[in-house]
């Protein structure tokens, strides 16, 4: 099977299952499993914290054992994690299931990125990653629609059917990944640290800056809906309209935006622009008293998001040593998890607590992180040249 098509098919399959899971999981855990919102939040926080810690060593395992085989095993492990949600009926078992699910998914992401790096030429990686992102958003939209049907029926069986579908999607993805060509494992060098990425200071700084930029994710999914409902005169349908604008824009334009990025230098420039555009979106959001102003800000936000995504893919692949793509992608992926964990608490206090001032602080954070990314990338590039000398 063509590697690009296989990676795209695996991404689409996972995204459809995940879209349905995201829409229905909270109600399933409260109404069927019987957990309290506090228990759900605590369990997810602990689970993703464990996943963040294990993502790097699992990525390292993909480097040393071969990313295809590790990706297949982790896809099956993720399916087992989702499948275990079907039978858990207590908080301790829920916590174990979440830890398995989050760890396997974090490792799977790193292994798939290493697999992509091994099968796709460096000059094409950002474009292929953009196709995967676009496909993933389309799959999430389809999955969300299927999850909406489960919410409409609102029965234990409908929720269980969604979980079963999500688990099956990872099994299917495992078989799709198994059809890919093998990427050779890379032997470790004697005396070299196993997790070299943790000692790579420029790459650590780049990952931290990317984490700040990724605070847009909890902003769109959690904080902005609360802001719209509680602090503006916009109708409630504006929340859905913002999500539709975001999803459709990524599906339609992410690949085109990725074409603006050709190398590390252009990625640094696009990252700088992304920070500025995200700052502008925060400024317009702070003015948002009507649906149209909010939607205008949402358009700016998704432009910045697509620019950020394209630049970050080029940077994360381009600065990772060829024999350590798994562990480096695993580490870079922790920026997403940390943003998910820290973002809701930080942004809720910042935006809902400080209002316009909070929007300006957040926009300043985006702009500063985007501006600092260029010097950090040049620092990392110089370090690579010194290592090669």
Put simply, the count of helices is 13
Rg of Cα set: 20 Å
For this structure, what is the CATH class of the largest domain? Mainly Alpha
Distance between the termini: 39 Å
Please tally the β strands and state the result. 0
CATH homolog superfamily of the largest domain? MFS general substrate transporter like domains
> What proportion of the residues is helical, as a percent range?
over 70%
How many discrete domains? 2
Shape, per Cα inertia axes: globular
Enumerate the spans where pLDDT stays under 50 for 5 or more consecutive residues.
none
Strand portion, in percent?
under 5%
Q: Please describe the biggest sheet, giving its number of strands, its sense, and whether it closes into a barrel.
A: none
